Amino acid sequence: MDNFKKKVLDLIKSVPRGKVTTYNEVARALESPGAARAVGQALNKNERPVKIPCHRVVKSDGRVGGYKLGRLAKMKLLQDEGVIIERERVANFNEVIYFF
DNA sequence: ATTATGACCGAAG
DNA sequence: GCTTCGGCCATAA
Question: Per the confidence metrics, is the pTM higher than 0.85?
Fold first, then answer.
């Protein structure tokens, strides 16, 4: 049970290509609402390209948010997956996944 | 135990 | 649309 970060990583592994989720949603799904910031910390520590799609996690307002390797890299990865981004924001915000 | 940090959020101006 | 500010929560020191 410690592994807050493990839970975070496991969860976001289920986010499919071309879709995104938010830090807030992840926190909520882990039953730690409000822990959005902590989620960011977890992702930051576990930078693991490709295997764990930490680039598919964005801010709740649709803006891209941060990334260990820079927002540029994050946006590039997303666009390669078909996510449309304009001015730091996800255009098709309807493609967000929610873990009820 | 206390403090600081950060890939955040929401409300307010 | 923007910026600022207070509040959140898990880590690290």
Answer: yes
- The whole-number Å distance from A86's CA to C4's C1' is 25
More confident residue, A1 or A8: A8
Quick one: three-class SS letters along A63-97? Answer: ECCCCCCCHHHHHHHHHHCCCCEECCEECCHHHEC
Q: How far apart are CA A42 and CA A39, in angstroms?
A: 5
> Which bases of chain B come closer than 7 Å to a protein CB?
5-10
- Distance between the alpha carbon (CA) of A38 and the C1' atom of B1, Å: 21
Q: How far apart are CA A9 and CA A79, in angstroms?
A: 21
Q: What is the pLDDT of residues A43-62, one digit of tens each?
A: 999 878 789 999 999 999 99
The pLDDT of residue A87: 95
Q: How far is the CA of A31 from the C1' of C10 (A)?
A: 13
Task: Give the closest nucleotide to A47 (alpha carbon vs C1').
Answer: B7
